[in-house]
Design brief:
Length: about 375
């Protein structure tokens, strides 16, 4: 695959993945942590796509530890880290760890003894060219609320005061977009700088804590944000990672319209569906006539959400708005999409069903807030 200079994030480049997990342990918890790590290591060794891992301890501060792992590519790692199996596997570590930080990197170059340092192809597990980003990290959370509470939850989520955008000297909240589809909530954030620092900053703000407490009675999954373990499990399960982002070249045109489209995949087809949409949006970015200026695809399990910035109305070009370009693409989407879950059954080759799908997939906007310098 050719890496476009406009892509700031993609997990679909075919390169190997290096995952780095920094941990700060409580004093006296080292042996308990080692026991928990051995349990995790034995389980992750059989996960498809996992190649190796290492556990390291700082030579300067014994409470600081490092876990590195290598994967065939990003998709199998994301499938593992977002699974219920992973949630249960790492649970014994929670009582040992004061703080964690996870980082994920595609491998661009590699030096081995007696081998020249030369670029390799993506087929050899190496990203060919560096991607060009915009300095913005993107992430989303998704969760469901009790049926019948949707309007109350939307009112609460739309009405709170925005937190301070500037986190520190290098990190700033750029944009928060919140949508609902039935009883499912999706909150997408854009952050300049350190995503984790920004999320922690937001979580500490009184106005945000108040609205989070206010929606607690309406959530389908119970949580107690005053309990670190309960909060950690909730936000782990709610994570909806950005797997691809692309923006057309040139200055953003005035009057862009932001929409979120919800694509429930057939069982086990979520990553494949996300890959299809990502590739289609790459093609759209190369087409000056496309109404899609920018797109971010979020995916977890069989939940796929596509955030799009359009230069025209959503229904002006249903094929492009849905992320379809070229012959046969509607049939590919139909093969991967759980049409019954979104209220569309039958062939997507007809204009009527395409418009029906677009109408059902379009999520209800709740709030879209940008900081002053965005």
């Amino acid at each position: 695959m050719t890496i476009s200079g406009r892509i700031s994030q993609s997990v679909f480049d075919g390169s190997r993945l290096r995952v780095i997990l920094l941990l700060d342990l409580y004093e006296g918890a080292q042996q308990q942590f080692l026991d928990a790590y051995e349990l995790m290591r034995n389980q992750v060794a059989s996960v498809p796509g996992h190649l190796s891992d290492q556990l390291c301890q700082s030579i300067e501060n014994p409470s600081q530890w490092l876990i590195t792992s290598e994967w065939e590519s990003a998709p199998p790692f994301l499938a593992w880290v977002n699974s219920e199996e992973h949630v249960e596997t790492v649970r014994p570590m929670h009582s040992c760890v004061r703080d964690t930080r996870s980082m994920r990197y595609s491998i661009l170059r590699e030096m081995t003894p007696n081998a020249p340092l030369t670029p390799k192809s993506a087929k050899e597990g190496m990203q060919v060219a560096a991607r060009v980003g915009d300095g913005v990290a993107r992430h989303a959370l998704t969760f469901t609320v009790k049926p019948g509470s949707e309007s109350k939850v939307a009112e609460l989520l739309a009405g709170y005061t925005s937190p301070e955008a500037q986190v520190d000297d290098t990190t700033r909240l750029r944009r928060t977009s919140l949508f609902m589809h039935g009883n499912r909530v999706v909150r997408a954030v854009e952050v300049e700088g350190d995503l984790l620092a920004a999320l922690r900053h937001v979580a500490r703000q009184p106005e945000v804590r108040a609205v989070e407490e206010a929606i607690n009675p309406y959530l389908e999954q119970d949580r107690d944000l005053s309990d670190p373990d309960s909060a950690r499990v909730f936000f782990t399960r709610a994570a909806l990672p950005a797997v691809h982002h692309v923006v057309a070249g040139g200055k953003a045109p005035a009057g862009l319209r932001r929409h979120a489209l919800y694509y429930p995949a057939k069982e086990g087809r979520g990553m494949e569906l996300a890959r299809l949409l990502a590739h289609q949006d790459e093609d759209a970015a190369d087409d000056p006539a496309s109404p899609v200026y920018g797109s971010t695809v979020f995916q977890r399990d069989d939940i796929v959400v596509r955030l799009v910035d359009l230069t025209s109305d959503l229904d002006a070009d249903p094929m492009s708005s849905l992320g379809l370009k070229g012959p046969g693409k509607a049939a590919e989407l139909e093969r991967l999409l759980d049409g019954a879950a979104i209220g569309v059954e039958g062939s997507l080759k007809t204009e009527r069903n395409l418009n029906r799908l677009l109408s059902h997939a379009d999520m209800m906007p709740v709030t879209d807030r940008s900081s002053a310098r965005s």
